[in-house]
Specification:
The longest helix is centred in the first third of the chain and has 21 residues, at about 75-95. The strands form 4 sheets. A 6-stranded parallel beta sheet has the order 2-1-3-4-5-10, with helices on both faces. The chain is an alpha/beta fold. Helix 1 (about 15-25) links the parallel strand 1 and strand 2 (about 30). It is globular, with a radius of gyration of 19 Å. The chain contains 10 helices and 12 strands. It has a domain at about 5-160 and about 185-210 and about 255-270: 3-Layer(aba) Sandwich (Rossmann fold), CATH 3.40.50.
Length: about 290
């Protein structure tokens, strides 16, 4: 495999993880944040990618603020749909493999069976609709793509649910957390390693990548405090108790059928990944 990779969203939670991993694996890494590549500027995107001429483009840049997307839909579509089009077209022009990071929000969450890669999509809000529009541009405009849908992402970079819970655990002895939204937590390190495996192949298509198993946000919060040895009482509450501008899928568990059928390694359980994350990044004792 050629070793030149360009990463968009390189200063984001997943982007930083990708930059670190691909650098560690001796790739020639070109990381771009929005300060030095505006993905909504087609001319700039084309100029950068045609100059670098990467063999692989990892597109992790996105408008990810789900509630804000409801208030600024045109901005969300500009970044997630047309920004993705711009990067996909430029990547195709130089013959690069292309990875587009998508989301469980392309599903409406009205089922109680895990969604596989061929399940019908039906996003509820602007964020999911704009990310699905990005998927469609990738499918229409690129010939060697991996669409990677993921969910409930956390890692050592950026802000995320695990960090929020650990901070709240320092201040509070009791918390209420939503128990009627079920999904799959995903550790960015595991996601990045699986993306590395994908691009080392020519098994193109759509992939669901999360840690295995599922839980509610309430169960996830309880596990965080248990694994971190923090004493906090967690109480279940409903989505209606915490109204937000954007609707969330109530059930967005991802089935990893494409990983299985294409003989990629299964991801470890969300609980094992959480434990590993806390040991690696906090002063948590190994048992």
């Amino acid at each position: 495999m050629s070793r030149k990779v360009l990463i968009t969203g390189a200063k984001g939670q997943l982007g930083k993880e990708l930059v670190e991993l691909f650098t560690e694996k001796d790739f020639e890494v070109y990381g771009f944040g929005r300060d030095n590549m505006d993905i909504t500027n087609q001319g700039q995107v084309h100029e950068i990618i045609s100059t670098v001429r990467p063999n692989i483009v990892l597109h992790s840049a996105a408008h990810t603020q789900v509630d804000l997307a409801e208030l600024e839909p045109e901005q969300a579509f500009s970044i997630n749909a047309y920004g993705t089009r711009n990067v996909a077209v430029a990547a195709e022009a130089v013959g690069a493999k292309f990875v587009y990071v998508s989301t469980d929000y392309v599903f409406d969450g009205t089922t109680n069976e895990p969604y596989n890669e061929f399940s019908p999509t039906s996003p509820l809000g602007v964020y999911g609709k704009s990310k699905l529009a990005g998927e469609q541009f990738v499918r229409d405009l690129h010939s060697k793509f991996f669409i990677v849908r993921t969910s409930w992402v956390y890692g050592k970079h950026g802000s995320n649910f695990v960090k929020t819970m650990l901070e709240l655990g320092k201040e509070k002895k009791e918390l209420s957390v939503v128990s009627d939204q079920i999904g799959c937590p995903t550790y960015t390190l595991d996601l990045a390693h699986t993306i590395l495996e994908l691009v080392d192949s020519e098994k193109y298509g759509i992939y669901h990548i999360s840690n295995s198993g599922s839980c509610s946000w309430y169960e996830f919060a309880k596990a965080i405090f248990e694994e971190a040895n923090i004493s906090v009482k967690v109480f279940p509450c409903t989505t209606k108790d915490f109204p937000r501008p954007a609707p969330r899928p109530a059930y967005s568990v991802l089935d990893h059928m494409s990983l299985r059928l294409n003989t990629f390694k299964a991801t470890r359980s969300w609980r094992a990944a959480l434990k590993s994350y806390l040991i690696d990044n906090y002063t948590i004792k190994k048992y």
